[in-house]
Amino acid sequence: AGTCEEMIKRAVFARELGAPIVMHDYLTGGFTANTSLAHYCRDNGLLLHIHRAMHAVIDRQKNHGMHFRVLAKAVRMSGGDHVHAGTVVGKLEGEREITLGFVDLLRLDFIEKDRSRGIYFTQDWVSLPGVLPVASGGIHVWHMPALTEIFGDDAVLQFGGGTLGHPWGNAPGAVANR
After folding, report:
1. 178 falls in which pLDDT band (50, 70, 90)?
2. Does residue 34 sit in helix, strand or coil?
3. Could you confirm whether the keyword NAD appears in this record (predicted)?
4. Residue 92: predicted pLDDT
5. Which residue, among 147, 133, 157, 114, has the nearest Cα to 72 in the 3D structure?
6. φ and ψ at 41, to 5 degrees?
7. Which of 48, 59, 87, 116 could bond to 68 as cystine, CB 3.0-4.6 Å?
């Protein structure tokens, strides 16, 4: 959507159609727009799925930008029900301990300082709602054991291309992921 007003109109339309969830890119849309949409979604029984397109130009640069741990905190503060958070496996892989660090920043109410996981100070989120991490991007059925071991059962595993790219076709890919 080109404006915040259009973004809300689209969320209203999605709700009228009976959609249970809307998706928003909080980096390209902005934190204020994201917070407005998060309030609308909460008030109207919609889930808000947060995408993070463009994150790599912000959080993967060694000389400038912000680490995803900061962006994860920003999405938790501005609102959303789940956010793409990397996988450790698949095409969005990252360092295991660092990924688990920002997964904990998204989910847990209290996080102890642990520099090995990129948590540089103890943080108490008090009653601020958590955000479910979404593992996506090049994952398929053979990644399932690793993903459930990494994320546990409090995450969203999104199999897109890994399902559609099954060598026997889409339906066998869906069956395999089930």
Report:
1. confident
2. helix
3. no
4. 58
5. 133
6. -60, -45
7. 59
Domain ranges across the chain: 85-178
Residue 129, token pair as written in the block: 């709602």
SS3 annotation, 58-115: HHCCCCCCCCHHHHHHHHHHHCCCEEECCCCCCCCCCCHHHHHHHHHHHHCCEECCEH
Q: How far apart are CA 139 and CA 178, in angstroms?
A: 14
Residue whose pair of structure tokens reads 């790599």 in the numeric block: 56
First to last CA, the chain: 34
CB 147 within 8 A of CB 86: no
- 22's CB contacts (< 8 A; 6+ apart) are 10, 11, 14, 37, 41, 46, 47, 48, 49
Burial 149-163 (b: 16+ CB within 10 A, else e): ebbeeebbbbbeebb
